[in-house]
User: Which sequence fits this backbone?
């Protein structure tokens, strides 16, 4: 399941309704409510998304913590994590046209600016993929409250006109 469902749009066209991804599944928000996402340049509804609240975020953070504690990711080497980030950068570059179009529609920014933002997303993953194996003699604990902060950061809403541009900063820093 892709988390989407059909719903009639404002202009009469069909738009997708997207659910929240928690614990490896697409689920409705606990409230069951959704809200429309508008293309700011046309004011057309381009999607509906789950209206998640603090209780949904708590579930997501708990699921992420449990998955991290029980998964192989915790024991994954820095080299493997770096390779994963480099593969992610490659996927972003392979899909740059579609991602740029989506970012432009979602944010209302000109396509050229969205293309630059998507390039920045890939560059960020490449940078942190290369940095994963660099040791500078200091480390930061990923246990206890600090880890909860990183998991919670991924659940926060990004500015409406900077969704992809800011979302790529959340994951590499909290890996």
Assistant:
């Amino acid at each position: 399941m892709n988390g989407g469902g059909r719903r009639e749009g404002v202009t009469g066209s069909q738009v997708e309704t997207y659910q929240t991804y928690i614990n490896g599944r697409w689920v409705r928000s606990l409230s069951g409510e959704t809200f429309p996402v508008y293309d700011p340049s046309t004011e057309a509804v381009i999607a509906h998304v789950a209206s998640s609240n603090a209780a949904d975020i708590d579930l997501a953070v708990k699921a992420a913590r449990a998955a991290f504690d029980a998964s192989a990711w915790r024991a994954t080497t820095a080299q493997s994590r770096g390779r994963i980030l480099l593969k992610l950068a490659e996927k972003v570059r392979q899909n740059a046209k579609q991602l740029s179009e989506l970012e432009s529609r979602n944010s209302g920014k000109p396509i050229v600016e969205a293309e630059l933002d998507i390039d920045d997303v890939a560059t960020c993953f490449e940078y942190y993929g290369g940095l994963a194996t660099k040791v500078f003699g200091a480390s930061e604990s990923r246990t206890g409250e600090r880890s909860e902060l990183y998991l919670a950061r991924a659940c926060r809403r990004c500015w409406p006109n900077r969704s992809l541009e800011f979302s790529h900063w959340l994951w590499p820093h909290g890996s």
Q: What stands out?
A: The beta strands are 4-8, 14-18, 20-22, 25-27, 34-39, 44-50. Residues 111-131 form the longest helix (21 residues). The chain has two domains: 1-53, 76-175. The helical segments are 54-70, 78-94, 96-107, 111-131, 144-153, 163-173.
